[in-house]
Design a protein that fits this description.
The protein is α/β, with parallel strands linked by helices. Helix content is 31%, strand content 29%. The protein has six helices and twelve strands.
């Protein structure tokens, strides 16, 4: 038994220290927001590492510690290749908490906050939610669900004046509901708390009517809160 144990130790040391199993190639899959260099930096794999000696679990945990990486898998491909597969977070919106208006965070479609916004993050394509309640988790998920529904409907809308300009800023107000600000259509569009599909259709009908009648008067507010009417307040001269 002693000889067998010594033999196993010798074999283990021979394999984990052999230059034959040195890592020559690292393949990475799934990267989108992170580039190869940042993923390798996060993985922190020493140069000339032995493939058999590398602690795959530790590398995976390092990768998953990065806020953009939701899941990671690390696999050996003998004799010289290491494969890394990452599943990155899919950002849906940038949210500003009601108690911290100067702070901004990334949220995925489920409403999970996964990192604070940084200066070099790709913000140009994502809508913003302002005054999202953070202190009450249930209330936060309720408002996020409402906001996500409205944003999805607006994205489906093929109305060109809705897609013009930067991504929308969606305001959350516990008394007035949801509203858009500083759009190419009007300074404010009020949507209220529910019936967003019907209100989106009313908005499209209003904009089509204005085009057909060549109405170019700027609008200050479009009030869609009540499902039975649309109120338009012209911009001040």
């Amino acid at each position: 038994m002693l000889l067998l144990a010594l033999g196993l130790v010798f074999t283990h040391d021979l394999i984990t220290q052999s230059a034959y199993f040195q890592i020559h190639t690292i393949r990475i899959q799934g990267e989108e927001y992170l580039d190869r260099e940042r993923i390798l930096q996060q993985a922190a794999i020493p140069e000339k590492s032995n493939l058999m000696a590398l602690n795959l679990r530790l590398v995976r945990l390092r990768l998953e510690a990065h806020p953009w990486i939701r899941e990671a898998a690390v696999t050996r491909r003998l004799p010289h290749t290491l494969e890394i597969t990452v599943m990155e977070e899919e950002p849906f919106a940038i949210v500003h908490p009601e108690t911290m208006p100067d702070k901004a965070f990334w949220a995925n479609r489920d409403g999970r906050i996964f990192k604070e916004l940084e200066a070099d993050d790709p913000v140009h394509a994502y809508p913003r939610m302002r005054d999202l309640p953070f202190s009450d988790t249930q209330n936060r998920h309720l408002w996020f669900s409402r906001a996500r529904t409205l944003l999805d409907l607006l994205q489906e809308n093929e109305e060109p004046s809705l897609s013009a300009g930067p991504p929308p800023v969606l305001w959350i107000d516990p008394d007035l509901g949801l509203s858009l600000s500083d759009t190419a259509i009007a300074a404010r569009i009020l949507f209220g708390f529910s019936d967003f599909r019907e209100k989106n259709l009313k908005l499209r009908t209003l904009l089509q009517h204005r085009r057909e009648h060549r109405q170019t008067t700027p609008m200050d507010t479009i009030d869609l809160v009540r499902p039975d009417r649309v109120v338009v307040i012209p911009a001040a001269a």
